[in-house]
Design goal:
Elements lengths: L1 H29 L1 H22 L2 H15 L2 H28 L11 H10 L2 H17 L3 H24 L3
């Protein structure tokens, strides 16, 4: 147990430090106004992610752990598959609704730049749902290193993609 706690703690702290440094870099690269718009978009995306994913990761990790104890690999695969399908369907519905209702987004976002930024970021609801399900599967199987590393890797990828976008390479 000590090893698991140490692993999760180490990666959690490393991830938070990396995220903190990234936010400092991002605020200097984009400026305060753009970071403010980004934060508004993130707030709405987190809400949409909660709608798409909700309690799915918590329930999945518990059900996977139960199936793991029984050695029921078929049940684990079924749980993983159904969680992915549920998450992807809900995420797809959210994407369809918001892309279809683009003209109403200024009701949510007062700034037009925020609307464009939100539409660019909207697909992350789908990718974040996938990520949440995979992490829950690792957690349920007590693969704490993989669980923690995926969160750390997610932050690294965010920074890399940000750097690519901000440099104008994409």
């Amino acid at each position: 147990m000590l090893r698991s706690v140490t692993t999760v703690t180490f990666f959690s702290v490393a991830t938070r430090v990396l995220s903190f440094v990234f936010k400092i870099y991002m605020s200097r690269a984009l400026g305060a106004e753009t970071v403010g718009l980004y934060q508004i978009c993130i707030s709405v995306l987190v809400l949409l992610f909660a709608v798409a994913c909700g309690g799915l990761p918590t329930v999945l990790s518990r059900k996977i752990a139960e199936a793991e104890v029984r050695g029921d690999t078929k049940r684990q695969a079924a749980l993983m598959s159904s969680s992915l399908v549920i998450g992807f369907v809900l995420s797809a519905i959210i994407l369809i609704v918001f892309y279809s209702a683009q003209k109403y987004l200024p009701f949510i976002f007062e700034n037009d730049r925020c609307v464009g930024m939100f539409l660019i970021m909207l697909p992350t609801v789908l990718t974040s749902t996938f990520y949440a399900v995979v992490r829950a599967w690792f957690w349920g199987r007590k693969r704490f290193l993989a669980f923690s590393f995926t969160e750390f890797l997610d932050n690294i990828l965010k920074i890399v993609f940000f750097a690519v976008f901000i440099s104008g390479a994409a």
